[in-house]
Amino acid sequence: SLAPWGVVAGLLAFGLSAPSGSQYAAMLACLLFVTVVSSQVVTNGLRMPYRLYRPLPDQSEAITIPPLGTFRVDRETRDSYLKLIRLADACGIKPGQGFLGLYNIPGVALITQTVTLGMPILQDRPSTEPILDQLTPEVIRSAVVGIDLDSGSYDPSMPKQLAAFPAGYRSCGTVILPFDQQRLDLWVGEGGG
């Protein structure tokens, strides 16, 4: 957010416009800030948005995520969203069912209307294991498990609580997310779905 910089520019302009300061320096500081903000607004509309496949002007397809509302996304993202919903429906995943996203895929829980277990963002095995230690084995075995198959930025190994995985889980299928062609596997535990 540029809001803190707006406050800084305002304070700087106010300080420079005091009787001992130069009004030209205050106007220059404000003009510089307005120029930077304006250029950010214009150029960010042309850049690739976070984790979407196409620039903002191409976000023309409407999808509805019940807890959040309606969004506009690109065609490829909409197709992945619809496939993920079909996989969840085919596997009998129910709203409110527990979800473990391995790793860093909290948006899948929102789309499938499941509830993240422990924390919304499970980042890697070492930080996930203490969180899963707080859950009962029954809760873990009945959870929906989403697995990012393409994360090369961190240790993709399973936490010790899922050492027997995929035993006790049924595969729902794989979705290719358009951003970086990220492959996501969806599984449902034997106690759920």
Task: Please give a structural write-up.
With 193 residues, the protein is α/β, with parallel strands linked by helices. The protein has 6 helices and 7 strands, in the order ααββαβαβααβββ. The chain has helices at residues 3-16, 23-44, 75-90, 106-112, 125-132, 137-141; strands at 61-65, 69-73, 98-102, 115-116, 144-148, 169-177, 182-189. The strands form 2 sheets. Strands 4-3-5-7-6 form a 5-stranded mixed β-sheet. It has a two-stranded antiparallel sheet with strand order 1-2. β6 and β7 (182-189) form a beta hairpin. 24% of the residues are buried.
Features of the shown structure:
elongated, five-stranded mixed beta sheet, 7 strands, two-stranded antiparallel sheet
Helix-strand blueprint:
Layout (H helix, E strand, L loop, with lengths): L2 H14 L6 H22 L16 E5 L3 E5 L1 H16 L7 E5 L3 H7 L2 E2 L8 H8 L4 H5 L2 E5 L20 E9 L4 E8 L4
Parallel strand pairs: 3-4, 3-5
Antiparallel strand pairs: 1-2, 5-7, 6-7
Helix pairs in contact: 1-2
